[in-house]
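Help: read this over?
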Amino acid sequence: MADPELEAIRQRRMQELMGQRGMGNNQNSEQQKVQEEAKREAEEQRQMILARILTSEARARLARIALVKPEKARGVEDVMIRAAQMGQIVDQVSEERLISLLEQINTQTTKETKVTIKRRQSVLDDD
């Protein structure tokens, strides 16, 4: 007699848990959609600012750089957007000016690579 009642309680509890998980997934997917929409809008705004401050040749060069080194292109874009927002860029940036900016950034962020070669000591090596 207790077994059917216990089974009914378990079934109801499982349905409640499944319902909560389903609603939680819906909330998560809605939050995810909102976040994706915000990212997309931010990227669109970013591209609009870049289109306004860069000539078409400079944008093409920056796009080619982004294919090879996306993090470097993103950094250059960030620098240019910040400069435009602070009013340091008043007219469009030409390809030559972009190249000089890239050279400046390269000299500031140049890493010195150092290679050290260690030979393994062998038992047969004579000292």
The mean pLDDT is 83.
